[in-house]
Design goal:
The protein is about 75% helix and about 0% strand. It is mainly alpha-helical. It has two domains: about 100 residues, Rna Polymerase Sigma Factor, Chain: A; about 80 residues, Winged helix-like DNA-binding domain superfamily/Winged helix DNA-binding domain (Arc Repressor Mutant, subunit A, Orthogonal Bundle). The chain starts with 17 loop residues before the first helix and ends in a 5-residue tail after the last helix.
């Protein structure tokens, strides 16, 4: 992590040198842009959300956040800001389109769409996180996952192609799934029930 991004925790970025302010913003931008762009699929919208999120973080940043968790916290704030932005804009769009719909019917429909938007965003983010975790695995783990989930090979077919036993394939797949699960638990702070 760059030390310049730590300056976001000071809460008084305006007192910094303009060049340093720009460096902090660029570091923040590079951190959250891919995630936001993945969700909204529009460059201008992503830029707007990043600017709003940056200002929000400057105004309300907790000064006691652990440096090791800063990037995860910044991504979480950006993700939540993106979801809020989508909800707000979806609500405006629904209001414009629902002039001829009774208000009793529109309110539950809008709430259902907002929750489905959040669920859709969460699913996309989780899928992206899983793909990132897979790319970080050992090559053999990546290979068996690709063979099983993308190529849809049976354990027997995988064992024949790799020249190992079916039991070894089962064991390797189990270990790869456990590695992904541990990475996701660390990144998403998910605990098993």
């Amino acid at each position: 992590m760059s030390k310049s991004i730590l300056l976001l925790l000071t809460g008084d970025i305006r007192s910094l040198d303009p060049m340093l302010q720009e460096q902090v913003y660029k570091q923040f931008y590079r951190l959250v842009y891919p995630m936001i762009m993945y969700i909204v699929k529009d460059h201008q919208t992503a830029e707007d959300i990043i600017q709003e999120t940056f200002i929000l973080i400057i105004r309300k940043s907790p000064h006691d956040i652990d440096e090791a968790r800063l990037n995860a916290w910044l991504r979480t704030v950006a993700r939540n800001a993106t979801i809020s932005y989508l909800r707000k804009n979806k609500k405006k769009q629904d209001e414009l389109l629902s002039d001829d719909v009774y208000i009793e019917n529109a309110v539950p429909l809008m709430a259902e769409r907002a929750s489905s938007t959040e669920a859709e965003v969460e699913a996309k983010l989780l899928e992206e996180a899983i793909i990132q975790c897979i790319h970080q695995l050992k090559p053999i783990y990546r290979q068996v996952i690709r063979m099983r989930w993308l190529e849809r090979l049976s354990y027997k077919e995988m064992a024949e192609q790799l020249g190992v036993s079916e039991e070894k394939i089962r064991q390797t797949l189990h270990r790869s799934r456990e590695a992904i699960k541990k990475k996701l638990q660390r990144e998403w702070k998910v605990n098993e029930p």
